[in-house]
Amino acid sequence: MRELDELRLVPRPKPDGSYRRAEFGPRWYDTDGNGCDTRDDILYRDVDKSVPFDAARQGSCDHDMLAGSWFDPYTGETISATDLKNQGQAQSIQIEHVVALAVAWRYGASEWDKAARTEFANDQLNLLAVSGEVNRAKSDLDAAGWCPKQPFQCAYALRYVAVKAKWKLAVDSSERSALAQMIDTCEV
């Protein structure tokens, strides 16, 4: 894949302890000015609209998500919630950074200003609604350290590469190799 080959190749960075989540701005900021935070935007974007779901107005947000079903693109399973104001249910569906913030930090974001990092943390291309269990398992791992189940590796790798390309983030050889293997699973 040409886009993968064009990513700048660097030696694998060693975590140096300098990454802090706070460097990427407030969690779920309203970067598009629609009155809804990014979490609600992604939950609304990714909710299965073919089945009943519930969203309400909260302040200036017209799609504060309360209930629905989501397809987890990493496991192929459906996650349903009847009350997202219930903390346990809210934790069952989480918003995942395809390229984790700590990974972005190590591969170039540490050089950006805070405004750029806040924009990256809320970039909808880099965000997916997934199960809380999967999000916790993936944590801050890069593509060399974690990948979804086989049927979903192609979509994950393509999105991962698109995010890295958009934000001009580098890759190391192990990450490039893992991504190439996942892209090889794509049907032609």
Structural class: alpha+beta
Total strands: the figure is: 5
Indicate the overall shape: globular
Beta-strand content estimate: 15-25%
Which spans of ≥5 residues are poorly predicted at pLDDT below 50?
none
What number of structural domains do the residues give? Answer: 1
Question: Helical region count?
Answer: 8
Order of helices and strands: HHEEEHEHHEHHH
Mean pLDDT: 96
Radius of gyration, in Å, reads 17 Å
Give an overview in words.
The chain has 188 residues and is α+β, with helices and mostly antiparallel strands. It has one domain. The protein is 35% helix and 16% strand. The protein has helices at residues 2-5, 38-46, 87-92, 101-106, 114-121, 132-138, 153-166, 173-183, and strands at residues 54-58, 61-71, 78-81, 93-97, 127-131. α7 (153-166) crosses α8 (173-183). The model has no long low-confidence stretch (mean pLDDT 96).
List the helices and strands and how they pair.
Layout (H helix, E strand, L loop, with lengths): L1 H4 L32 H9 L7 E5 L2 E11 L6 E4 L5 H6 E5 L3 H6 L7 H8 L5 E5 H7 L14 H14 L6 H11 L5
Antiparallel strand pairs: 1-2, 2-3, 4-5
Keywords:
single chain, two-stranded antiparallel sheet, about 35% helix, globular, about 190 residues, 8 helices, alpha+beta
Question: In summary, what is this structure?
Answer:
35% of the residues lie in helices and 16% in strands.
